[in-house]
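New to this. Please check both lines:
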Amino acid sequence: MSSPALLPVHRLSAEIEAGRLSPVDLVEDCLGRTERLEPKLHAYVSVYAAEARLAAEAADKAIRAGHRIGPLHGIPIAVKDLVEIEGKVATGGSAAWKQRVATRTATLYRKLIAAGMIVLGKTHTVEFAYGAWGTNQHLGTPWNPWDPAVHRAPGGSSSGTGVAVGARLAPWGIGTDTGGSVRVPAAWNGLTGLKTTIGRISTHGVLPLSGTLDTPGPIARCVEDAATLFCVLQGADPLDARTLGHTDCDPWPTLRRGVKGLRLGRFPGTERVGVDAEVLAAYDIAVDRLAAMGADIVDVALPFRCHDLGHATGRIISAEAYAMLAGLAEDASAPLDEAVRPRVLAGAAISSRDYLNALAERDRLKQAYAAATRDLDAVLTPTMMTPAMPIASIDQSGSPAMLARWINLLELCALAVPCGFSAGGLPLSLQIVCRGYDEAMALRIGWAYQNATDWHERIPPMAA
């Protein structure tokens, strides 16, 4: 096997089970690729090379001794630098927190280790996870691996995870999504990203941006891997009250049932304004492919404009971010990103009345959306309005995530999957939006689409 790091997780697991691949060789391949490509890609804040090698050796010995603890024993993973590990630095993407040592360990990290996974390192994020372009002024912006010549936006805020998984430095990774931050880097790096419903995965030990909207989730090569990691991460956690009272989702019984007979809503024509022509063309072809597979495509009239809900989402994020970060943002001597500081400070202008009204309006919008889509299994949209843009052309006063933010506001779940490429060779993405807590349906539709296409199997030039 020339480079096992090029394989998706379900293939890696099968190779390890069959004795054809050792976790030692797999981890060494990932670390070797990282050593070679990381100077330009800049995906990682910290690489835990020594720890990963020790863990791989232990996994290899246990597996050879007949003590494999499960299908993910010895599988490497990259983790966003919002996830706390006791005794290790958790910067949250901020130069002001470069020496901030975590005093607790995130529940989701404990679940990764319990499943036998090996953490390769911490990946870069936009400062405080507050931004969808993926840029970071002080700690550095990862390089999108689909364009070796031009530094393009990696997508944020889970920028490093998107680049690490996209460039095959790691087979999968952890992101967080407050307004698109799993789906945006997944879309722009040619990957599959699952935005989970609030309360599906514990946020204990994950540095917050907006406690109302934050949701961790997997960034992977394919839907099958995303489903696997989702199942590991989900579940009730007494340290996170939002996870209590939900029955775990099991996507496997329905994952391969196809889309025949499902009713899927088509992106309204009013929402197509401002979306790149290549994005729309790829989206239309994807919808036609699902129709050819037996899905019933239905024109849907949404009771709002996604763009407007994107701004409403931003108000909640800004108010909650300011409540937590005002001290840093108002300290002129603190080394904060020039694009992030004003986003935090904007929360000062949001009164408690405005904030509570925004939460009440969210409840009304949730009811209106539920009524408009009651007969649908999912709504299909493009994930992004454009392909990844050159860093030099970015306008930091706006957000590229306006087709993603509204899903967080309405407490829905969504899956981003590759659906084509621009003429310049940049990945394009389809977004499958489902009701809250119906991740199984999003994964089912995504698996059917990927089983009929090969966009998710393409490898970026910088990973070959």
Notes: The first strand starts at residue 44 and ends at 47. The first helix runs from residue 9 to 17. The chain has a mean pLDDT of 97.
